[in-house]
Structure formats: structure tokens, C-alpha cells
Amino acid sequence: MAKRVGMEVAIAVAEAVGQCNIDMAAVYPITPQSHIGEHLSDLVADGRIDAEFITVESEHSAISAVIGASGTGARVYTATSSQGLMLMHEILPIASAMRLPIVMGIANRAVSGPLNILNDHSDTMPQRDSGWISIFVENGQEAIDMTIQSFKIAEHKDVNLPICVNIDGFQLTHMVESVEFPDQEMVNKFLPPREPFATLHPSKPLTMGAFAMADYFTEIMKAKNEALKNSKKVILAVWEEWARMFGRTYKPVEAYKTDGAETLVLTMGSMGETAEMAIDELRAEGLSVGLVKLRLWRPFPFAEIRDVLKNAKKVLVTDRAVSFGGPGGPVFSEIKSALYNERVRPAIYNYIIGLGGRDVPVTDFVSMIKKVVQDAGENADTYEFLGVRE
Amino acid sequence: MSHATGLQYLKKGVLPHMWCSGCGVGVMLGALVRSFEELGYERKDTVVVTGIGCTGKTDDYLVTNALHTTHGRALAYATGIKAFNPKLHVVVLMGDGDSVTIGGNHFLHAARRNMDLTAIIINNFNFGMTGGQFSGTTPADAITQTSIYGNAERQLDISALAELAGANYVARGTPYHVWELKTNIKEALSKKGFSVVEIYSPCPTHFGKNNKMKEATAMLQWLKESGLPVEKYNSLEKSARKGFFAVGKLVDREEPDFNTRYEEIRRRAMNLKV
Ligand SMILES: Cc1ncc(C[n+]2csc(CCOP(=O)(O)OP(=O)(O)O)c2C)c(N)n1
Ligand code: SF4
Question: Which pTM does this prediction carry?
Fold first, then answer.
């Protein structure tokens, strides 16, 4: 039987990894990820899971070590945050090029400088083009579910790609939430042992990470792009299977009270729940507003986004990171490009919010949404840093 | 006789500091600013470069020039400062994670290059700032947040590493031997070439708590009882040294530093051209 418990989300993520029969984990500590690594090391040390835990000397070594282990056929996990993720940056495209199904938890935190340890999405955004599947979770339950699902998605024979699960640092990792762990036998059924399509094995030698110049490089890039795009089918299928087995449904894009809504606000990650409360409040006031929550960041769900936004007059996209010198936040520019070919397009607004841990309460969502609702169109296609002191 | 206080190097209004009671970082800071005063360092010709960690927070309290860098990379930043402006006194403050775990490569190369930098390292045998996890200097059988029954990995000896990699000066101190610590810091600061002061330091909050030394005094007691003056330590048979460590000056040599050698090569190249 699934059991419901109150647990810190970072610990719950480690427990979820522990349910996945991993062979090896390598983690370097960094706030707010550290409790994931610590708890995993406890699970290994206490013999609750039969795996190796390596206290590596950096995140660069963590990701490199899990690549090595994954190359031999192991099921592997790592987790990091902020500066640690930036340090892994060099290795991330190598993991995807080698088509290794690594699962990584990211406790999202602002990157330096200035030095900051609190939550935003500026660590994960620069990794966007690394060829990893990237998913955002909204609460502790999703963090558990996505972590377990990730192994199945990543290891699927039609995918073989690494995947990162974005979990807002502190706002999620350090919250004690009421969560339910799936029954272990059901997880075993859902997630059979990994069947690698190629491994570093003494009896069948092969090369991973070979050299490719102009003659093959483009083809390999295209293959990786196709693989990432095609992974969506598997992601959807895995979510369907999850819903059947565990009763919780997941979609690339979630709609909340969008029916007939003229203005839609879009969030990614833990702020979805705050935005929901703002929508409830504004609906009660009679405003025609709704909420769209983007869960799947890569592969980007173009069709689903077009579909959910098609009847809206205005869309307010929130971003938790800045694309300096660019067109606004990274989510904003993605949504815009998704809508570019539509004949009828909503007016689109961008707010950059919650940087470096700045709180965004319900009242802020309410006033942002109201501003957009009242705008006669002159501020469309612009971006604004919410509540900035000039 | 009045003693140096080093107060003129401390920012006003920032105390109390952030370190836990019984932590060794504050003792290091005290010894450092007193050394600055005794050597007549000026705020403007001194640059303190810090990494990330409890030790890395030291720059918050100083009025000298300060460069707070990234975890593990402080020595690389400092190398740039010194290469371009050799007149500056460049002091690098790091934890054991910073200096020889994530930043081990830079440590080897700063020593090999014999950069005229002073590295002061708080070795508290774990990652203090992030909550007491296993570090490259954690004794294999010690308990940390990521090694609850010990670890298969062995411990690095920072001072031995510094000697082997080419540092001109190496000393080991502790916050218990505070007078000697200041002497060693002053020697290191005055030395041309790469100099290292490794400080075995209490982290009662994590390392102490996990290793039956929860009280700050228990950690100091351990440092007092196991730290032997270099001569005494060296006079012991190898087998009798177990459980003890040497305190004081370990290496003192006069190899030319990077800037000196750079200047020599520059001259040679200029002469060749003429
Ligand atoms: C690239 C990177 N990885 C991880 C961290 C998180 N982190 C901050 S301080 C620290 C370790 C601190 O230990 P140490 O250097 O020994 O210094 P202490 O706090 O013990 O003084 C870590 C792992 C970081 N800031 N950057
Ligand atoms: S955690 Fe340890 S190293 Fe950090 S301030 Fe406290 S005692 Fe010092």
C-alpha cells in the first residue's frame, strides 16, 4: 500500500531515488541540494539500497563519474544546484551525445554573482540546449513521481537520453509536505531493470565519445535533436501508464480554470500553486482569467502550448531568469516563437519575477494579472522586472 | 608592551561575526589582522581573496581590498592579481574543500608555479558551510553527513601536498597554538613564493558533533593533545607518530618565485632580440 507521510521534499526525492533500484550515485554537496545527497548516502550506508555512493571532489566529477558508470550499464543518479550545475555544464552535452539515461535532480537556485543561495531558474536555463529532457515540478508529490518516472523515460529504448528534474530550491526542497510514496512492488513493476543498448564491457569492446569532424558532426547533432523531440511520445506514454498504475495524471502543460478565460498567466515550477490562489481570487471578482502551468521544458510542447493559448486574448508569461540583452525571459521567448505562425495570436506580456529568492506572494500575482487585464495593448510584447527598485 | 590588535583592518559595525562559537575561523582572522598590523600592511596594498565556505566568508569583516570568488577557484583568481600587479600582498583564505577538494588542481599549480601568494587554509576536515559533508581531508574513519560509518577514501595531507608540489614555505598551526599561529602567518606573508599555512581547526557544529567532540573545548583539547612542536614530532619513531601531528614550520626554502623567473625570461628574450 502507498503510504502518506509528512517529509522534507529533498529527503523525499532521495527516498524516491531509493525506490528505483539504482546502482550508483555521485553527488557533491551544495545548498539547497545537499539533503538529497546526504540522505542518499545514508540509504546506501544503511544498506537500504544496494548501490555505490561516491563522495566526489566536485560536480564536474559527479557528472563525469555517473557518465562512466552509466556507460557500463548502471542505473545512476546525481543531483546539484546553481554553481554546481554551472560547473557540470561542460559535461552535460556529452552525456546526451553518448545517449546515457542519467537522472539528475536540480534544486534550482540563483547563480552568482552576486553570490546568492536562494531560488530562481537562472541555473537551469543556461543548460537548455544541452540535449537533456527537462521537467519542472510544482510540489513534493510531483518531485517524487517525476523522479521515479524519469528513470523509465530516460532508459526507454526509443529515448536513451539524460533527464533533469527541476525542483525549486528551498520553496520546495526545504518544505515539509504531505506526500505519498508509491508501493515498492508497483514501482518494481513499473520500472524493470535497465536494459542498455550498448555498454562498456570487456567481452564486447566499443568506444564511447569518439571523434567526429565536419563529416559526421551535423548528422550526430540532428540525431540528438530527433531523439529529444521523439522522447515526447515516450514521456506521454509513461505518464499514461503512471496514471493507470498510481492514479495521478501528468501532462506537458496543465490548464487551471482556462475555460473561456480571456487572460492567461503562465508559470513554471512551484509558483503554480501561488498563481492558482490568485486566479481563484480574481475569478471570484468576476475577472475572466486562468492559469497555464508548463511542466515539460525540453522537449518543448509546442502543440500543447498553442492549443491551450489559442482562445486567449492576452497571455502573461512569468520568468524566473533573465536572458540578458535578449527579448525578455527565456520562457517568454519560447512561448512567442510557439505562437509566431498562428494567424490569431494573443497579446503577450512578460514579467521577470522571484529572482534570487525574492518572494512573490498571491497579492503580487493579483496585481500583475490585473495590470495586464487592464492594459489597452500599449504594453504588449514588453517585459518588466516585477517590483524592481530603480 | 602593547600588542597588535589588528582592529584597523576590521569593518566597523559587522560584529558579532557569523561563525559558530568555538569555530577556528575567527581565531585565524584575529591572527591574520594582527600579522597585518605587525608587518605594517596598508589596506590599499593588501588583497584578501576568498573562496566559498565558512572560511570564505572572512572577507565580510575586512576593510582591505577583497575578492570573494567561487568555490575552489580562489587561487586561480589570485594568480591573475599577482601576475599583473606583483606589488600587492595577496592573501588567499580557503577551507579544505575549497583548497584541495574541489580546488585541488589550482592548489597544485599555484605551488608548482611558486606564485608569490600566501594561502591560509582552515582544515576542519569537512565542508562546514554546507552542513558537514565528507571532504578530501576527512580522516577515512571519521563520521560526516555523507559517511555515517566512515569512508573507503583516504585523507589528503595538505602540508605534505604543498611541499611536494613546490611551495616555498609550509607551516601547520591550530587555534589552540594561537601565538605560534601568528608567527607562522607572519613568516608566510613575508616569504617570497608560494606559502601555505594549514590550520587544523575545530568545527564543533559538524565535525565535532559527528565525532564525539561536540563541545568546542573538546576539539581544542584534541588539538592541544595531538599537536606536537615539529622538532618533538620529528624526534618520534615513525610508529609512535600515529595520532599526533606536527605544529610549526615544516618547509622553508628559497626557490625563485614565478614573477622572478618571468622577469628573467623576459630579460633573456629581450637580449636575444637585440
Ligand atoms: C561549484 C560549487 N559547488 C558546491 C558549492 C557549495 N559549497 C559551498 S561552501 C562548500 C564547502 C565548504 O567547505 P570548505 O571549503 O572546507 O570550507 P568551510 O565551510 O569548511 O570553511 C560547498 C560544497 C559551491 N558554492 N560551488
Ligand atoms: S559550521 Fe563549522 S566551520 Fe562553519 S562556522 Fe560553524 S563551526 Fe565554523
Answer: 0.97
